Amino acid sequence: MNTFSLTVSTIIALVLTSYIFLFEWSSKLNSVIHSKYILSFDPKNVIDFELKYKNNSSLKITRKKNTWKISLPIECKADQLTINSIMQKLPKLPKFSSVEEKDQKGLEAYGLKNPSLTLKITYQNNELNRVESRQLYFGKLTENKAEVFVKADQDSRIYLLHSAVLNILKQNWNNYRFKNLISMNKEFISKINFNDTDETWSIQKKNFTWFCEKPFTWKCDQLEINTFLVKFCALQINRFVENDLSKKKNYGLENPKQSIQFIDKDNKSYTIFFGETRAGSTFLHNTLENFIISVNADQLNEIIPNLGSARSMDFIESKPHEVSAIEYKNKTGNIFFKKGLDHKWEHQNKKYSLDQATIGNLIERFVIIVPEYYIDKNQSEKIFGFNENAQQITIENIKGFSEKITIGNKTNGWAIPSQLKYFTTQAEAIAYGKENKLNKKLFIPIKKSYYAKYNDFDQVFIIDPDLVSLFQRPIIYFTKKTFNVGKINDLRTIRRNIGDKEEIYAKLNSLKWIETSNDNKELKYQKLALLLLSLSDFTVDEWIKESIKNEDLKSYGLDKPKASITATFSTYINKKIKGKNKKTKVTAHFKFVFSHKTIRGNHFGCIFYRASLKDEFKSMNFIFTISPKRLIDRFLAKLH
């Protein structure tokens, strides 16, 4: 009884298993037969696919974490776009012109007994929770070669496909490889080292800004470096040359003359070595890969920067409106300007009323300083003059940081403007010219510029002498061009000398003036008004010098002047004397002297100013320039 029961149970189990298997197989076969497409799978679930060629070689591409990678014939990166495009098309190969099994002449007749190509796809079947695979065999082409015979496993019929599908799959396996020269995200690159026979230099990114680190510290041209990274990362490999690194010598890569090393923020690095250039292509080796490649030589040379182009010409960070103070120091003293609460520029000595436009122009000139040449020598060399006597220009920014330029000695070297090269001595220039077979006419002397350095960077450069001369000017240069002498009502006497002729005028009342040097002849006030206005509110074209000496007068032709005018002002002011307010007389004398000499069409002039307030006395004198029109129309006009 027990044996019988066991036998029956076994038979029932076998029948059920066979039924389930046959039902599932027939169901799957039925779904395959009735599907519109030859293959049916979800591209997102593909684990790998393999192409087996007639010569028994294989190409296998595997997906890990949504990234395709070639594992056969060698391990290397895959072109994600190319493979994803193929994966999207394979499940949509339509069935048409099928050959039923009963009409088939045998697999050999269709080239399917020994297929020219076999495609195997492995994928995850989420419905059945298991890994499955499908294969598609490619046979002969039709007579017109427009179609190819194919057969899928799990399908008894033979189909025709456009031959283009076969051509795509049978393309050289190198076309499936990643074709960009580098794959590192440019945003993660933190340091780059450039090495070649002419120069070795490195740059580093700090707080999203690139700086030169070697041979000298300096700011980089951000656009130049970022453009290089964008183009270099996008540079396409035009040929995969060799998968055997032992043959590097054949391509000039055993002792390469040039290399670029990239280091990321995690301190991981790789290096691109440059080999020989042949037929417009340069051979390269990436240390992350075990093969040799080539790229277009012209594109490569155009992309790679040199130290000269990588250094920033626009290195001052502050914008004109952000500058809150500016100071100039030299061995004799300093000038300091700062913005007041009213956002107007003030001098440390409040007696000077600054010309806002002049200070504004000065700052605009400063923030757009452009080095004429860079000098790759140690800044400690005596020739540069960066010592305790060096001039310094410092600006303070409203953002809380300062920028400083230290100005050393005047230059005394030679340069090649076309190459932006500077030589501190003529001997260096001659040696360079001989080595590179350059025409002597390319060299020019640089004698009047200045050596300079910026902040704590050790890069030495040369700046325009005109900028330095702006700061070397006397403080009077930065003051208002309008000199407020006094009120018209306080003007008492005027003495005017034109050549050998002297005229003296005195005020009788607010509207009446007489010429004491001409029998007290009364003057018409309308004619005198222009002179009075000019004397009370005097405007110059440019201030030249302050605190002048006798030798200065001769230099500017003011010792034997064209004309002079002396104006006397007097008024009463309230002044505390022993705790009580008392009216006190103030007298001021202004003498204006005008020269025959001119500069840029303007006459030189000078002002002598003396003021007395009882026991107090102060004086100032300045040299200035004034236009001929103002000189003639206002100061020398006839008053009769």
What does this structure look like?
The chain has 640 residues and is an alpha+beta fold. It folds into 4 domains: 28-176, Sandwich (Immunoglobulin-like); 186-310, Immunoglobulin-like (Sandwich); 323-411 and 448-476, no CATH class; 481-635, no CATH class. It has 12 helices and 39 strands. The strands form 6 sheets. The protein has a 9-stranded antiparallel beta sheet. A 9-stranded antiparallel beta sheet has the order 33-32-31-30-36-37-38-39-35. An 8-stranded antiparallel beta sheet has the order 4-3-2-1-5-6-7-8. Strand 19 (333-339) and strand 20 form a beta hairpin. The longest helix has 33 residues, at 2-34. The radius of gyration is 45 Å and the shape is elongated. Residues 12-34 have low confidence and may be disordered.
